[in-house]
Amino acid sequence: MSETTIDIRELNERIERQSAFVDALTMGMNNTIVGQKHLIESLLIGLLADGHILLEGVPGLAKTLAIKTLADLIKADFSRIQFTPDLLPADVIGTMIYSPRTEEFSIKKGPVFANLILADEINRAPAKVQSALLEAMQERQVTIGEKTFKLPQPFLVLATQNPIEQEGTYPLPEAQVDRFMLKVVIDYPAKDEEKIIVRQNISQSGNTIAAMLNTADIISAREVVKQVYIDEKIEKYIIDIIFATRYPEQYGLQNLKEMISFGASPRGSINLALAARAYAFIKRRGYVIPEDIRAVCYDVLRHRIGMSYEAEANNLTSEEVITEILNAVEVP
Length: 332
Description:
The chain has 332 residues and is of the alpha/beta class. The chain has 14 helices and eleven strands.
């Protein structure tokens, strides 16, 4: 037992040293993005845990600016794809172009070949385009013609959804949404934050963003994140939360049985563990505590719980279900 304690202490010190850059990176983001602390934290979790993010929020909340700033800070290639109803899969992944001069086909790579991708208003494009992007996200590779190309590392997709207009949109199927590690919902800034935003934007001085790291640093940081210790009790806690979304009656939540049409898949438990690890790393800790699970639980499970018609009739949201589950499941 004492040996494990020493190991944990040593691991904790090592991770505290190696996660020092997180504070600098957060500060760099805060210099450009006012407020939106949760968005910045979620981007770092996605980057360190190698997961993609689905972002929901009204226009003008600095979604594009946030990922662009992060790309500049880590010297990564950034690419923005505006999803529209007339977009084709080739516009995302690339295509083969015939050259009459050489009488040969050459491959033109699409905007998906970058480290950080902003898929703006993903629900504006038809299913064919959505699935082309989701396949690239899942497989980390793209096939054009007969050739398969690996996508650069790190590779993070931040897809945005506008919750206001549903006219002329193609909602992402539930099974596809599951590919995103996190679904983050962001809200308006507070009054004092908005005052700073207005001041910053009407003053002529633009913020220059100096790169602090490079993509190789992020890849090596991911290896360190994998060393963050998850105790068996924490693993059981994760499994209990996931099982409570599938069989709420086993956890004394009979009232939710009719409200949930389907619970989280095993991808949910995997992503909950990975995101909690990254969150512990961001908090400069070498081990995961129950608070880490609770902190990432809403973003990881929000889009993985299917709500029944009865739940919709009662205005019950997946967030309220998660809250009830977290209150019912025993904390280790």
